[in-house]
Amino acid sequence: ILNVEQSPQSLHVQEGDSTNFTCSFPSSNFYALHWYRWETAKSPEALFVMTLNGDEKKKGRISATLNTKEGYSYLYIKGSQPEDSATYLCAFCEAGNNRKLIWGLGTSLAVNP
Amino acid sequence: DAGVIQSPRHEVTEMGQEVTLRCKPISGHNSLFWYRQTMMRGLELLIYFNNNVPIDDSGMPEDRFSAKMPNASFSTLKIQPSEPRDSAVYFCASTSGGRAAYEQYFGPGTRLTVT
Q1: A59/B contact by beta carbon, under 8 A
Q2: What would the pLDDT profile of B75-105 be if each residue is shown by its tens digit?
């Protein structure tokens, strides 16, 4: 059974703090790793899709790195703002089945003003 | 583009009733996914279609659940008979097959309550 784990489960930070969370996934048969942002009462929205070991992606203050050999990805938020409060989900695509995503349970981030 | 459209947005029904959830994917997308979201288990893939053909339905809980995609612009998820444990938010998502890795676009979800 493929397992995707995210840590921490929840996080509270102050406005202006930088933070990061981890996604662990199987290191064999890797195809892609997705990060999504899910605000309360809305739908998940894609942040990044990464396919190559060593990939680094950035969107504004949010960035992500990928290590496929050891099976982890980090998501970083620099200078957190209250509007960054959301659940951040990662999802793993296995080679040969690259439309099916295996989802983690997410990291819930709350940024206090 | 209107994005992925789901209806209804909210459904309250009594145990034993049939429930039909509807989804219109983004035009041009050739893969469609049905997910169920609960607090305990997060996002669970129920079934997905590629070019209107069901590819993986291993996540469908039991025979009470069925899904169809009669054409590229419409899919349904049916629960018959519904049970209280089916209460959840059901999301539909679509993606295009033209890229090497496929980010998924989610609809607004249908919140189902079975009493």
Answers
A1: no
A2: 999 999 999 999 999 999 999 865 546 789 9
